[in-house]
Amino acid sequence: MQENKNVMIMDHPLIQDKISLLRDKETSSKEFRELISEVTMLMCYESLRDLPLKEVEVETPLMTAKTKVLAERHIAFIPILRAGLGMVEGVVNLMPTARVGHIGLYRDPETRLPVEYYCKLTSDISERDVILLDPMLATGGTAVDAITMVKERKPRSIKFMCILASNQGIEALTKAHPDVKIYCAARDAALNDDCYIIPGLGDAGDRIFGTK
Ligand code: URA
């Protein structure tokens, strides 16, 4: 894993292999959905490395063992609609007791600014560590706004998890929210004129839901 203060790039060989399949335009919608789930699950595993543990004793068939379990499970995953939905299966497979909130934002085609149209979070968000989910961190506009919206509800902490991140997106997000750690699987250098990450993997929402 490559790491600096704010950005963790999870470039494990298993993840890189799946990213190559995600990038491939010949990958079907079904395969794409499955791959997004698999990559997200692998990333989630690493992004929860700092979960607190507590010591307990269990009786093995032979004797008492001092061992560790999660001290708490106060996690809320918040997919950003619509493409973030594709990442939910992967995270809840790993943390079935986590809460899942939803945030809907879209990019105004003329102003290119994010517009909020939906926000439903768990009522005990102030007691939870939030992980926001969006497969693509492109300009960073949506992510910055989604984090601002979540911060207004005062969660304990926020992390941002995406599959691909552009340099521009990382820069925008770290500038606006230096306290939020970004977890991504690959970092691409550029955006095209339509604000798509290049080389990227295309429109993640369309490829997840087969709407192209
Ligand atoms: N959203 C996508 O789905 N793809 C991109 O490349 C950028 C934003």
Structural commentary:
This protein is an alpha/beta fold and 212 residues long. It is built from six helices and 16 strands. It has helices at 13-23, 29-47, 88-94, 141-152, 167-176, 204-209, and strands spanning 2-3, 7-9, 53-59, 64-70, 75-81, 99-100, 102-107, 114-120, 129-133, 136-137, 157-161, 164-166, 181-184, 186-188, 190-191, 197-198. The strands form four sheets. Strands 1, 2, 5, 6, 7, 8, 9, 11 and 13 form a nine-stranded mixed beta sheet that branches. Helix 1 (13-23) packs antiparallel against helix 2 and helix 2 packs across helix 3 (88-94). It is globular, with a radius of gyration of 18 Å. The two termini are 33 Å apart. The protein binds uracil.
The stretches of 5 or more residues where confidence is low (pLDDT under 50) are none
Mean pLDDT: 94
Report strand %. 25-35%
Structural class: alpha/beta
CA(first)-CA(last) distance: 33 Å
| Number of helical elements | 6
State the order of secondary-structure elements, H for helix, E for strand.
EEHHEEEHEEEEEHEEHEEEEH
| Radius of gyration (Å) | 18 Å
Ligand set: uracil
Main β sheet profile: 9 strands, mixed
| E-strand count | 16
- Work out the helicity level: 25-40%
Shape: globular
